[in-house]
C-alpha cells in the first residue's frame, strides 16, 4: 500500500529435509527448499501432494515429523505460530463466524494493539482493494464463497507481516477478479517486500506471479525453478506434463519411425508448439475437437499415441481428418525413459533427425 | 523442542489444573480412605493405618443390594432411553423448525427446568395410582422422561451444527427423521455422552421420589439401601456411609472412566478442518 | 383368605434395625398364616411421614406405621390416624396399655384416647470419658450430678494448647437439627414443661425456660466449657471418640455405637439435675391409619401387641439400643443377661422415672421449628435468651390459637 | 401459495416432533403445577377441615413473613456467590481438560467426581471437612497456620458461605462436562487462524473460544440461575437451614413448609413466587440472549 | 457410467421471475431461465452475483422470495429438497465429518436403501473415477482440499439423479485433474442424460462444458447463450469483458481518429484477435509485458486507452517500444455506449472504416 512503511522486509525461509507423516500416510517426504527473503514462491502440485501441509508446517500449525524449519536464519521448528510473525490465508478461509467482516479483517491488528485510527485507515484501504466496502458489517455466514475468500485475503494482507502464506487464495474468484487480485497481490508483495509462499493449483497463477516455483509430487520435491525455466526446461516428464494447459504431449521415441533406434527416450512437445505444416514431420489423424474460444484443441493420434494440439479456431476440423504438423526443434524436450531426467544434450540431435 | 515461554505457561497451567483437581477429588479420596479403614481412622490420616473390608461387608449386608442394583440399572436405562428419544425429537423441532407456538412451547419446556419434581410429588403419586403403577419401576421413571434440561441442552447443540450438512443430507433424499438420525445425532455425540453421564448419575442417586412411590424390594433402587446409613440419630458413621457410597456409585465411576476416552476424542473437530 | 397389612417403618440408627424388623415380621407371619405383612422401609422419620401422608392423600394409606411420637397431633390434624381404643376393648387389653412406661405414654395419648403405641423410643443420657476425668484429676467413676457440677467438672476438663487453642472441651450438648430435644432436658430439670398435654399451648417464655437457655448459652460464653456456635449432632459421637470433648449429651440410641468405637473407658449417667432430674423422651410410636377394614385393623393391633411383647421387645432393644418401653421386658432373661453384661443400658430405663414428654403440639414441626430458631439465635448470640423465647412464644401462640 | 405449503409442512413436523415430549411434560409437570398454583388461593386442607377459598391471603401472609424475606435475601447472596464462580471454574476446567495435559485422565476424573457421588454422601463428607476441631479444614489450617478450630457450619456468619463452597464444588464439575462437549465442536482452524494473527492463549480464549462457547454459556447460565434456587439437598444434612435460618434458601423453606409443616397451600404460594422469580430471571435471560448467541 | 441405466432422463427446469432478498440485500432479482431437459447449463458471473443463491433455490434449500420454479413441468416452489430428486455439490463441500469417504459417497444410496452389492459396485466405480480409491476409509478431516472436493463430487454423481447441481465443483483441483474431471463430468452427463446446472467462476469450464451459459450480474440476467455465441457475440460490454481471459479490450470509438464521428459507440477487440501487422490500423506503445508460457501478454496503449494483446513469446518486447497491430474486421464488436446493447449492424461499416 502506498505510503505504508514495510514493517520489516521479508525474511528468508529454509526447509531442511522436512517430513510429515500421519501413521502410514506420508504427506511430505524429506522436503528441502530455500525461499529467499522477499521472494514470491509458488507451491505447485497435484491435489493431495502436500502443499497445504508444507505451508502449515511453515506456519507452525502442523508438527514436523522430522527435519528443521528456519525463518530469518533462526530455527523455529518448535516455535508456536503466534511467535513466527507471519500471515496466512487458509484454504477453508477460517473466518471467525461471530465477528463481522471488518472485525475479521482487523483481528490481528487488535491483537497487536494497533491504534484505532491506524486500524481504520488500513481497513478502509484493504476493503477498498478487495471490493468489500459494502459488506463490512456482514457476518461471514451472509457472504458468498468468493466474498468469504476475499475477507480471508484481507485479514492476511492488512498485517503487513514479513512473511505471508496463502493457500489457494483465489480459487473461488471469477476470472476477472482473479486477474485483478493477482496483479494486486503481486504489486503489494513487491512494494512491501515481504516473503510470499503461495499455494496454488493454478499454474497460470504460479507462472505469472512467482519468482520461483516449487513443484511437489506425492510429498517429494519434483523441481524448483523460475517459472520460465519450469515451462521451458521441465526437469522430468511429470513437470513437463503438469505445467501448461493442455499438458505437454509425451511420445515414446519409437512413435516416430525415424527414432525407432532410441526406444529408451521420451519426447515432449507442447500442444501450442505444434502447428499445421504441410509435409511436416508429424502425420496425425484428428480424433476430437474441443472449442476454446480463440483456438480449438484438437485431440490427435499418431502411431497409437494420443496427443493434443492447439490450432486456430478459424479453420474447421472434423474427426477422422488427417493433418500434417510441424514444430521447431527448439521446442522439443527429451527425457530419459528410465531415470526420468531431462536430456538437453540430445535435443538438437533428435530434432535434426526428426526433421530430416 | 518447545520455546521457554511456552513451556513456562504450560507448567503453570498444569500445576493449577492439578491443584484444582486434587481439591476436587478430596471428597472422593476421603470416601476411599474411610471406606477401607476402621472407623477409628475417620479423622486420623496415618499412612500405616490398617486396611479393612468390614465397612463394605456391613454395607452390603444392610439391604438386598444385588436386586437393588438390577432395579437401578433398569430404571436408569428406561429413563435414559426415554429422555434421549423424547428430548431428541423435541430439541430437533425447536432447533430447526419454524412453527407457531414455538416460543410458548419452549417456555413451557424451560418451566419444567424450574419446577422441582418433588414439589409435585403428591399430585404425581395420585396420577401413578390412577394408572395403577404405584410400586413399579415405570412409576419412578415416568415423571422424569420428558426432561426440560435434556431438550434445552440438545437444542443448543443442534443449533451449532452447520446448516449445510443438514442441507446436503436433504438433497440426498433423507427425510426429516433421516436427517436427524444420520446427521444431527451422530454430530451431537459428545453432548449425548455428556448428558447421558449426567442423567444416569442423577437418577442413579435420586432418592425421595423412588422411596415414596415404591414399597417392595423388587422395585427399589440402590439409594434406598444406601440411605439406611445416612439416618443420623446415632451420629454419622462415615466409614460405613462411604463404603456404601463407593459400592453404589462404583459402577458409575467405572462407567465414567471407560467413557471419558471417547468423550474427549476429537472425532468432531477433525471434521470441520 | 389372609388379611393383608402394609406397615411403614423408619430407620434412624443404621443398618441392623431394618433387618431386625423384617425378621420379626417374618416370624410373626410364619406363626400366623391368616395375615401377610408387607413391612416397608420408608427412610428416615422425615421420609416416613412424607411417604405416609403422600400415600394417604393419594388414596393408598398403609394400615400401620411407625412415626415420631411428637407427630401425633399433626397426624390427628391431618385426620390420618385413628385411636387404638376401639380395638382394645377387653380388660386384658387395657392392662396391656398400662404396662408401658408413663413417660412414653404422655406422647401417645391425648383427649383420653390412645393414638400411639411406643416402640422405638429413646431418651438422652450423659456419656463421659473416664480417662479424661482421671487425667483432669477427677474421680473417673463419678459423673456430674448437677448443673453446677457440670460446669465445675467442665472447667477442669477443658484443655488448651500452647497457642491457646482448645484441644478438649468439657462438655458437648449438640444443637443442630433438633436442638429443642436436648434443651428440653435442661428445661425439665429446671422444672419447666414446654407444652401442655393437649398440644395447643406452649410455655416458651416461662422464666424457668429462659434460665435453662441462659445456662446453655453460658456454658460456652461465660464458663467456656463448651464449643461456641451450633454444635453438630451427627459429629458428636466422633468428637467424643476423638477426645474433643470429655462429656457429651446424646441419645441412648448411641450406646452400641459408643461401646463399639470409643477407644477409652466411658461411663453413662442420667442428665444432671437442677431443680430435679429430668429428660425428654423421643423416638417413634406405632400409629393405626384410617381407611383400613375392620379385619385389617384387628390384625394390625394384634401384630403391635405381639411385637411389643417381652421376647420381641428384648430382641429389638438389644439390636438397636432403643429403650424397651415396657417394664416387663426388662424382666426377661435375655434382657437381664444383657444388662448384666452392659449395665449402662439401665441408666436410660431408670431415668424414665423422671422423663417427660417430648415437645409436641399441633402443627408440631412448625412450632418446634420456631422454637429451634429461637434457640439457635440465642446460642449464636444474635438475640438474648429472653427476647428470643418471647418472640417464639408469640409466634407459637398465633399458630396454636385456632386449636384451643 | 406454494410457499405457504412449505411453511405449513414445517409446522406439522414441528408439532409432531414435539408431541410425545409435550404429553409427558403436561402430564407430570404442567398440570400438577397448575393445580399447585390454584392451591395457593385456598387454605391448607387439614383432615377435618377441607380447603376453602381464601383469595390472596396466602400471598399477604408471604409478604408479612420475615422468614420468607430472609431466605430470599440468602438466596440472592447464594446466587451471587455460586453462579460466577462455578461457571468461570467450569470453563477453566474444561479448557484444561481439553488440552494436552500431563495426567489428563486423572484431572478429568477428579473434576467429574461431584457429578458421580450422591449428595447424601457428599454432604456427609463435607460435614466432616467442616467439623470444628478434628474436621479436615481445621486439621489443615491448624497444621499450616496454627488457626484455632472454627465452627463454619454452626456460625450464622459463615454457614451460608460454607454451603456456597460445597455448591461451587458440585456445580463447576457438572457444568464442565457441557463445556467439554461444546469445545469439541469448535473448528480447530479458527484457533489456528487466530494463532497466525499472533494471538496468545488468552486472546484466543477471549476473542474466539469464549464467544463461540456462548450457546453453551447461555445454557449453563440459565441452569446455574435455576440451580441457585434449586440445589438444596445438601443443606438438609449440612445445616438444616440453621442457625436460625442463616443458611436456608427459598426452596429449602418451601420444602420445610410443604413437607414438614404440611402447609401445602402456603407451600404452593411460595412455589408460585419462586416460579415467577425464576421465570423472570432464567427465561427472560434466555429469550434476551438466544438470538445473539447463534450467529446463523 | 457404462452399463448403468439412467434412472430416468433429465428433467427441464424453469425459473419464472424468481427473486431472493435478505432484508435490503437483493441477491437474485426477477430471474427467468429455461433449462432444457438433459442440457448442461453453466451459471457464470462475478463473485456475489447470486449464482449460489440461484442454485440453492433450485435445490429447494433457499426460500424463494417471489416467483416460481418448475421442474419437469411441475411447480416445485414449495417442495422440500428431499422430494426434488436431485443431486448437488456444495461450494463448501458439506461433507459429513463423522462419516468416512466411502460412507459420505454412498450416503444417498443408503438413504434410498439401494442394495449392498449395487452400492459397492457403484462406489468402486466412482472412487476409481475420482482417484479416491486409497482414501475410502479416511475421515474428511484427513483429506486435502482437493480430495474433499472430489468426495463431494462423488456423492453427487453416484446417485444418477435426473438433475445435478454443482457449485464450483472443481475450484480446488489442479489444472490437470481439473481438465480430466471436466471431460469426465461432461461425458457422464451426456451418457446419463441428466440435466446439469453448473456454477463456476471459470469461463474455460463454462465454455468447454456447457450447452448454454447463463451469465448473471448483480442478481440479474445478463445474457443466455451458447458458449460460442457468448464468446463471439457478447450482448453487452459486461458480457464482452467478462468472457475471455484476458478480457476483451473496449475502446471508446473516438480512440481511433477514423471513427471520431461516432463517439456514442464502444468498440471491442479481444487480445488474441489482434496481431502484429506492419502498417496495421492500431498504432500502440507497449507499457508492460507479462510472460504466460506460450505467449506473452502485452499491455499497450493507444490514445490514452490501455489494452492488452496476446503476442507470441518468440519475439521480445520491451516497454516503451511501439508496435503496429492489425485485426480482421470479423473480430470487431460494436456496442451502443448508452444502452449497452450490441450493434451487429454496424460491425462491417466500422471495420471497413478502420481498415481504410
Ligand atoms: N444470508 C445472507 N444474508 C444476506 N446476504 C446474503 C446472504 N447470503 C448471501 N448473501 C448475499 O447475496 C449475494 C449473492 O450471494 P451468492 O452466494 O449467491 O453469490 P455467488 O454468485 O455464489 O458468489 P461466489 O462466486 O462468490 O460464490 C451476495 O452479495 C451475498 O453477500
Ligand atoms: N489429518 C490427516 N491424516 C491423514 N492424512 C492426511 C491428513 N491431512 C492430510 N492428509 C493427507 O496428506 C496428503 C497431503 O495433504 P495436503 O492437504 O497437504 O494436500 P494439498 O497438496 O494441499 O492438496 P489440495 O491441493 O487438494 O489441497 C493428502 O494425501 C492428504 O490426504
Ligand atoms: Mg490444500
Ligand atoms: Mg457461490
TrEMBL record, chains A, E:
It comes from Roseibium algicola. It holds the Pfam family TOBE_2. PROSITE patterns: ABC_TRANSPORTER_1, ABC_TRANSPORTER_2. Residues 13-243 form the ABC transporter domain. This is ABC transporter ATP-binding protein. SUPFAM superfamilies: MOP-like, P-loop containing nucleoside triphosphate hydrolases. Belongs to the ABC transporter superfamily. Keywords: ATP-binding, Cell membrane, Membrane, Nucleotide-binding, Translocase, Transport. Signal peptide: none annotated. GO terms for molecular function: ATP binding.
TrEMBL record, chain B:
Gene3D superfamilies: MetI-like (1.10.3720.10). It is a multi-pass membrane protein. InterPro entries: MetI-like, MetI-like_sf. Pfam families: BPD_transp_1 (PF00528). It comes from the Bacteria. The keyword Manganese does not apply. Its main location: membrane. Residues 69-259 form the ABC transmembrane type-1 domain. The chain crosses the membrane at residues 15-36, 68-92, 104-121, 133-154, 240-259. It is found in: Cell membrane. Keywords: Cell membrane, Membrane, Transmembrane, Transmembrane helix, Transport. Belongs to the binding-protein-dependent transport system permease family. This is ABC transporter permease. The lineage of its organism: Bacteria, Pseudomonadati, Pseudomonadota, Alphaproteobacteria, Hyphomicrobiales.
Automatic annotation (TrEMBL), chain D:
Residues 72-287 form the ABC transmembrane type-1 domain. It is found in: Cell membrane. Keywords: Cell membrane, Membrane, Transmembrane, Transmembrane helix, Transport. Gene3D superfamilies: MetI-like. Belongs to the binding-protein-dependent transport system permease family. InterPro entries: ABC_transporter_permease, MetI-like, MetI-like_sf. The chain crosses the membrane at residues 12-33, 76-97, 109-129, 159-183, 204-226, 265-289. It is a multi-pass membrane protein. This is ABC transporter permease.
Amino acid at each position: 500500500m502506498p505510503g505504508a512503511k514495510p514493517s520489516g522486509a521479508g525474511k528468508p525461509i529454509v526447509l531442511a529435509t522436512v517430513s510429515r507423516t500421519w501413521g502410514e500416510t506420508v504427506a511430505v517426504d524429506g522436503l528441502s527448499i530455500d525461499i529467499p527473503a522477499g521472494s514470491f514462491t509458488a507451491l505447485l502440485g497435484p491435489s493431495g501432494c502436500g502443499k497445504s501441509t508444507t505451508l502449515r508446517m511453515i506456519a507452525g500449525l502442523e508438527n514436523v515429523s522430522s527435519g528443521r524449519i528456519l525463518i530469518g536464519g533462526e530455527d523455529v521448528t518448535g516455535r508456536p505460530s503466534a511467535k513466527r510473525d507471519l500471515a496466512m490465508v487458509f484454504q477453508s478461509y477460517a473466518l471467525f463466524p461471530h465477528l463481522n467482516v471488518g472485525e475479521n479483517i482487523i483481528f490481528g491488528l487488535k491483537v497487536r494493539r494497533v491504534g484505532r485510527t491506524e486500524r481504520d485507515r488500513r481497513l478502509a484501504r484493504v476493503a477498498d482493494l478487495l471490493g468489500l466496502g459494502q459488506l463490512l458489517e456482514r457476518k461471514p455466514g451472509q457472504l458468498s464463497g468468493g466474498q468469504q475468500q476475499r475477507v480471508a485475503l484481507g485479514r492476511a494482507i492488512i498485517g503487513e507481516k514479513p512473511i505471508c502464506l496463502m493457500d489457494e487464495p483465489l480459487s473461488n474468484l471469477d476470472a476477472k477478479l482473479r486477474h485483478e487480485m493477482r496483479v494486486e497481490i503481486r504489486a503489494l508483495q513487491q512494494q512491501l517486500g515481504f516473503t510470499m509462499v503461495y499455494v496454488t493449483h493454478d499454474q497460470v497463477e504460479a507462472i505469472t506471479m512467482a519468482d520461483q516455483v516449487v513443484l511437489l509430487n506425492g510429498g517429494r520435491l519434483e523441481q524448483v525453478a523460475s517459472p520460465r525455466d519450469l515451462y521451458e526446461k521441465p526437469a522430468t516428464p511429470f513437470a513437463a506434463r503438469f505445467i501448461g494447459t493442455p499438458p505437454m504431449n509425451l511420445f515414446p521415441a519409437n512413435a516416430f519411425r525415424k527414432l525407432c533406434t532410441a526406444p529408451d527416450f521420451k519426447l515432449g512437445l507442447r500442444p501450442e508448439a505444434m502447428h499445421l505444416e504441410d509435409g511436416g514431420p508429424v502425420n496425425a489423424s484428428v480424433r476430437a475437437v474441443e472449442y476454446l474460444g480463440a483456438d480449438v484443441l484438437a485431440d490427435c493420434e499418431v502411431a497409437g499415441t494420443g496427443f493434443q494440439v492447439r490450432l486456430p479456431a478459424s479453420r474447421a476440423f472434423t474427426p477422422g481428418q488427417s493433418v500434417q504438423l510441424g514444430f521447431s526443434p527448439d521446442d522439443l524436450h527429451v527425457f530419459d525413459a528410465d531415470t526420468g531426467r531431462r536430456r538437453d544434450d540430445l535435443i538438437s540431435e533428435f530434432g535434426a533427425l526428426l526433421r530430416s | 523442542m518447545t520455546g521457554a515461554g511456552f513451556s513456562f505457561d504450560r507448567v503453570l497451567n498444569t500445576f493449577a489444573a492439578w491443584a484444582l483437581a486434587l481439591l476436587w477429588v478430596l471428597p472422593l479420596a476421603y470416601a476411599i480412605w474411610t471406606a477401607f479403614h476402621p472407623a477409628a481412622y475417620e479423622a486420623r490420616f496415618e499412612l500405616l493405618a490398617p486396611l479393612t473390608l468390614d465397612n463394605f461387608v456391613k454395607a452390603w449386608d444392610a439391604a438386598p443390594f444385588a436386586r437393588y442394583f438390577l432395579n437401578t440399572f433398569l430404571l436408569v436405562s428406561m429413563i435414559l432411553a426415554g429422555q434421549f428419544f423424547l428430548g431428541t425429537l423435541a430439541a430437533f423441532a425447536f432447533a430447526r423448525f419454524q412453527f407457531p407456538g414455538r416460543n410458548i412451547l419452549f417456555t413451557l419446556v424451560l418451566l419444567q427446568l424450574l419446577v422441582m419434581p418433588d414439589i409435585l410429588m403428591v399430585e404425581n403419586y395420585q396420577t401413578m395410582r390412577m394408572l395403577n403403577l404405584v410400586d413399579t419401576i415405570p412409576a419412578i421413571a415416568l415423571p422424569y422422561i420428558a426432561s426440560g434440561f435434556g431438550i434445552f441442552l440438545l437444542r443448543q447443540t443442534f443449533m451449532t451444527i452447520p446448516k449445510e450438512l443438514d442441507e446436503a443430507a436433504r438433497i440426498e433424499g433423507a427425510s426429516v427423521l433421516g436427517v436427524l438420525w444420520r446427521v444431527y445425532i451422530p454430530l451431537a455425540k459428545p453432548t449425548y455422552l455428556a448428558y447421558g453421564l449426567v442423567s444416569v448419575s442423577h437418577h442413579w442417586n435420586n432418592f425421595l421420589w423412588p422411596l415414596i412411590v415404591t414399597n417392595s424390594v423388587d422395585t427399589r433402587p440402590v439409594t434406598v439401601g444406601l440411605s439406611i446409613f445416612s439416618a443420623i440419630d446415632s451420629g454419622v458413621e462415615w466409614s460405613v456411609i462411604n463404603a456404601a457410597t463407593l459400592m453404589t456409585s462404583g459402577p458409575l465411576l467405572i462407567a465414567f472412566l471407560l467413557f471419558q476416552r471417547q468423550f474427549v476424542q476429537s472425532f468432531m473437530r477433525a471434521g470441520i478442518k | 383368605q389372609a388379611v393383608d397389612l402394609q406397615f411403614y417403618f423408619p430407620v434412624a440408627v443404621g443398618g441392623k434395625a431394618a433387618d431386625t424388623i423384617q425378621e420379626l415380621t417374618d416370624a410373626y407371619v410364619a406363626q400366623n398364616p391368616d395375615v401377610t405383612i408387607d413391612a416397608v422401609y420408608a427412610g428416615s422419620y422425615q421420609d416416613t411421614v412424607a411417604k405416609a401422608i403422600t400415600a394417604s392423600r393419594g388414596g393408598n394409606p398403609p394400615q400401620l406405621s411407625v412415626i415420631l411420637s411428637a407427630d401425633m397431633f399433626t397426624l390427628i390434624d391431618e385426620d390420618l390416624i385413628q385411636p387404638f381404643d376401639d380395638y382394645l376393648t377387653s380388660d386384658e387389653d387395657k392392662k396391656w396399655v398400662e404396662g408401658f412406661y408413663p413417660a412414653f405414654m404422655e406422647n401417645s395419648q391425648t383427649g383420653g384416647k390412645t393414638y400411639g403405641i411406643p416402640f422405638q423410643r429413646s431418651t438422652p443420657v450423659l456419656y463421659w470419658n473416664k480417662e479424661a476425668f482421671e487425667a483432669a484429676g477427677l474421680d473417673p467413676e463419678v459423673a456430674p450430678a448437677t448443673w453446677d457440677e457440670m460446669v465445675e467438672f467442665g472447667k477442669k476438663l477443658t484443655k488448651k494448647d500452647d497457642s491457646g487453642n482448645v484441644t478438649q472441651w468439657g462438655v458437648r450438648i449438640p444443637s443442630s437439627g433438633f436442638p429443642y430435644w436436648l434443651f428440653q432436658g435442661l428445661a425439665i430439670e429446671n422444672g419447666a414443661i414446654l407444652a401442655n398435654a393437649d398440644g395447643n399451648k406452649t410455655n416458651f417464655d416461662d422464666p424457668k425456660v429462659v434460665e435453662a437457655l441462659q445456662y446453655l448459652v453460658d456454658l460456652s460464653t461465660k464458663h467456656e466449657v463448651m464449643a461456641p456456635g451450633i454444635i453438630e449432632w451427627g459429629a458428636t459421637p466422633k468428637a467424643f471418640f476423638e477426645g474433643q470433648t470429655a462429656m457429651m449429651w446424646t441419645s441412648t440410641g448411641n450406646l452400641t455405637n459408643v461401646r463399639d468405637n470409643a477407644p477409652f473407658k466411658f461411663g453413662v449417667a442420667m442428665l444432671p439435675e437442677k431443680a430435679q432430674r429430668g429428660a425428654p423422651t423421643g423416638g417413634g410410636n406405632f400409629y393405626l391409619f384410617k381407611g383400613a377394614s375392620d379385619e385389617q385393623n384387628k390384625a394390625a393391633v394384634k401384630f403391635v401387641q405381639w411385637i411389643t411383647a417381652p421376647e420381641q421387645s428384648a430382641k429389638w432393644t438389644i439390636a438397636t439400643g432403643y429403650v424397651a418401653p415396657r417394664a416387663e421386658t426388662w424382666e426377661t432373661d435375655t434382657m437381664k443377661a444383657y444388662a448384666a453384661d452392659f449395665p449402662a443400658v439401665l441408666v436410660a430405663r431408670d431415668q424414665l422415672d423422671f422423663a417427660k414428654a417430648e415437645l409436641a403440639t399441633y402443627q408440631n414441626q412448625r412450632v418446634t421449628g420456631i422454637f429451634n430458631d429461637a434457640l439457635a439465635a440465642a446460642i449464636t448470640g444474635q438475640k438474648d435468651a429472653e427476647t428470643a423465647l418471647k418472640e417464639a412464644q408469640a409466634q407459637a401462640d398465633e399458630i396454636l390459637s385456632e386449636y384451643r | 401459495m406454494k410457499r405457504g405449503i412449505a411453511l405449513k409442512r414445517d409446522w406439522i413436523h414441528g408439532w409432531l416432533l414435539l408431541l410425545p415430549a409435550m404429553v409427558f411434560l403436561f402430564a407430570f409437570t404442567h398440570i400438577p403445577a397448575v393445580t399447585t398454583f390454584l392451591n395457593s388461593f385456598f387454605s391448607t386442607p387439614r383432615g377435618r377441615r377441607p380447603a376453602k377459598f381464601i383469595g390472596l391471603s396466602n400471598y399477604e401472609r408471604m409478604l408479612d413473613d420475615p422468614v420468607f424475606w430472609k431466605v430470599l435475601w440468602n438466596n440472592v447472596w447464594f446466587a451471587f456467590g455460586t453462579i460466577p464462580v462455578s461457571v468461570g471454574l467450569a470453563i477453566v476446567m474444561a479448557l484444561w481438560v481439553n488440552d494436552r495435559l500431563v495426567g489428563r485422565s486423572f484431572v478429568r476424573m477428579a473434576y467429574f467426581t461431584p457429578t458421580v457421588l450422591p449428595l447424601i454422601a457428599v454432604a456427609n463428607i463435607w460435614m466432616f471437612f467442616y467439623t470444628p476441631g478434628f474436621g479436615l479444614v481445621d486439621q489443615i489450617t491448624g497444621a499450616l497456620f496454627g488457626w484455632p478450630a472454627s465452627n463454619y457450619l454452626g456460625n450464622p456468619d459463615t454457614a451460608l458461605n460454607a454451603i456456597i463452597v460445597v455448591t461451587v464444588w458440585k456445580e463447576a464439575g457438572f457444568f464442565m462436562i457441557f463445556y467439554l462437549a461444546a469445545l469439541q465442536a469448535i473448528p480447530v482452524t479458527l484457533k489456528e487462524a487466530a494463532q497466525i494473527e499472533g494471538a496468545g492463549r488468552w486472546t484466543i480464549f477471549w476473542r474466539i473460544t469464549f464467544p463461540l462457547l456462548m450457546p453453551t454459556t447461555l445454557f449453563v447460565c440459565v441452569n446455574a440461575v435455576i440451580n441457585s434456587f434449586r440445589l438444596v439437598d445438601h443443606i438438609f444434612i449440612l445445616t438444616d437451614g440453621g442457625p436460625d435460618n442463616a443458611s436456608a434458601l427459598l426452596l429449602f423453606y418451601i420444602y420445610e413448609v410443604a413437607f414438614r409443616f404440611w402447609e401445602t397451600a402456603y407451600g404452593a404460594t411460595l412455589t408460585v413466587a419462586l416460579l415467577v422469580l425464576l421465570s423472570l430471571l432464567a427465561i427472560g435471560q434466555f429469550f434476551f440472549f438466544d438470538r445473539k448467541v447463534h450467529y446463523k
